[in-house]
Amino acid sequence: MSMYINSVIGKALRVVSRQNCDILQRIATNSTRSMSLVSGYSFETLKVESPKDYIFHVEMNRPDKLNAMNQIFWKEMVECFQKMNSDPDCRCVVISGAGRAFTAVEIHFLCSGLDLSDAITVLSGDKSNDIGRAAFKIHETIRQYQESFTAIEKCTKPVIAAVHNACIGGGIDLITACDIRYCTSDAWFSIKEVDIGLAADVGTLQRLPKIVGNDSLVRELAYTGRKMFSDEAKQLGIVSRVFPDKETLLSGAVELAELIASKSPIAVQGTKVNLIFSRDNSVPVSLQYAATWNQAMIQSEDVMKSAMAGINKEKATFSKL
Ligand SMILES: CC/C=C\C=C\CC(=O)SCCNC(=O)CCNC(=O)[C@H](O)C(C)(C)COP(=O)(O)OP(=O)(O)OC[C@H]1O[C@@H](n2cnc3c(N)ncnc32)[C@H](O)[C@@H]1OP(=O)(O)O
């Protein structure tokens, strides 16, 4: 019994001393950090800033083209989210679009990096271009584009999509890979692929039905490409909050990110991993996975810290992960 008490006291002391180190470290960081680009995150199509401790704001940054997604974007998304995944200074991400629209995918880069007219040539049976080889190449490209949004799911830090104005085609693929979606009242959504003669192929058809839980409506939207406005998106649960304008949207998203980032990163990231696992697996298999996950994670110092903070009505701070 005394061994147990000693170990609890020992653990608690270690927790408190690390808490103090954390606080000092945070004060030091705060005094030097300016609200600017995060170093090491230099991209052409994405701007990454840190508005608050542990919060990263990724802004799609091609405002002149309404944040159309070009080849550089597809590549940079993977690099950026992989980097944030292993960055201990990042605990929660907000993604938004610069300028007047969230995103309107650039149609020139469909089909194996060719522009649309090249693609049409291939599809109309250009004999100089073997169909089998072209298909393999296109397959590879589509898989790469899929990875650009799967990278959002693979990043264990929660990602909040802040959508204003147009969210078209690939924009919906992107936001359905995010954890939480907020939008402005002027936001509208369109599964536009059908209008360019395509079945959506980078995530919408796979993820949206699991978000919405209304199969009939998903089919209606996907077969017609019709605009869905923010009130309908909210009613369906595609977005969880609607804000009057972009400014309030972004501050609402950052506020939510701050709350998430104040929790144990072990708990938050474990929750994301388990939610995604459960979405893709049966309840019994997912329960088994959760037990295996927590047989290790429950031993984290964060559990003790959280419990003590709760008892003492204090705010816990957690070491970097
Ligand atoms: C493997 C496949 C992976 C992904 C597949 C995804 C499929 C899709 O995303 S399908 C959807 C494709 N996108 C569209 O159909 C949207 C096309 N754009 C529009 O309909 C309009 O631009 C608008 C969004 C309704 C806005 O209209 P408006 O306000 O009149 O602005 P514009 O003058 O049209 O645009 C301003 C500027 O942006 C450029 N731009 C807009 N959309 C695209 C785009 N999709 N691709 C490339 N560029 C785009 C537009 O050309 C203008 O540029 P300028 O240089 O000023 O001319």
Automatic annotation (TrEMBL):
GO BP of this protein: fatty acid metabolic process
A single GO molecular function term of this UniProt record: delta(3,5)-delta(2,4)-dienoyl-CoA isomerase activity
Keyword Lipid metabolism part of the UniProt annotation: yes
Transferase in keyword set: no
Compartments reported by the entry: Peroxisome
Pfam families in the record: ECH_1
Pathway(s) it belongs to: Lipid metabolism; fatty acid beta-oxidation
One GO CC annotation: peroxisome
Catalytic activity, as annotated: (3E,5Z,8Z,11Z,14Z)-eicosapentaenoyl-CoA = (2E,4E,8Z,11Z,14Z)-eicosapentaenoyl-CoA; (3E,5Z)-octadienoyl-CoA = (2E,4E)-octadienoyl-CoA
Record function comment: Isomerization of 3-trans,5-cis-dienoyl-CoA to 2-trans,4-trans-dienoyl-CoA.
Family under the similarity heading: Belongs to the enoyl-CoA hydratase/isomerase family.
NCBIfam families linked: PRK06142.1 (NF004794)
Family annotation (PANTHER family): DELTA(3,5)-DELTA(2,4)-DIENOYL-COA ISOMERASE, MITOCHONDRIAL (PTHR43149:SF1), ENOYL-COA HYDRATASE (PTHR43149)
Protein name: Delta(3,5)-Delta(2,4)-dienoyl-CoA isomerase, mitochondrial
Species: Paralvinella palmiformis
